[in-house]
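Reading is simple: each integer encodes one residue's backbone shape. An example follows:

___
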Amino acid sequence: KPTPKSICQKRFTVTRAVSGCSGVTNHRAKSNRLGFSVSGKDGREAGTFAVTAETTPPVSADPSTLLKATESLAGLADAVNVTDGAGAKSHMASLAAAALLVQAGIEPVLQFTVRDRNRIALQNDLLGAAALGIPNILCLTGDNVDTGDQPEAKMVMELDSRGLMALTRDM
């Protein structure tokens, strides 16, 4: 019987951002004890780069806007990063946008930020991402709400991005 831990172990390899540069790994790659990839997808050797592009989900519920913006990336990018509340502004949920990309045959890198979620909400979304077949996670802190269009919003920040990586790895 699958457990939340076994689902996440099969679905995700935790990714990390270092000095503002985002790294991408894939769940099909072999992983070390910490969950970081030790080889790339599609036969790439360890130490080679995956080429990713980034999209911000639309400020609407219309999936065609997202799909139109990403369809031209087929064959150019190994995966598409889906931002999570970029610029501290409201957009279509990154989880929904990533699921739409999976349905369209585009491999997403789902960005998860700790700014707007406590650990329970993060675990719920990680399980949802696993159930929807989303293979890649990028763990981030998130933009400060002072930079967004709703500066009176409260940041949650129960965990930092390292805590989110640990939570994901341990599920």
Q: What stands out?
A: Confidence is low (pLDDT under 50) at residues 1-43. Residues 119-131 form the longest helix (13 residues). The chain is about 30% helix and 15% strand.
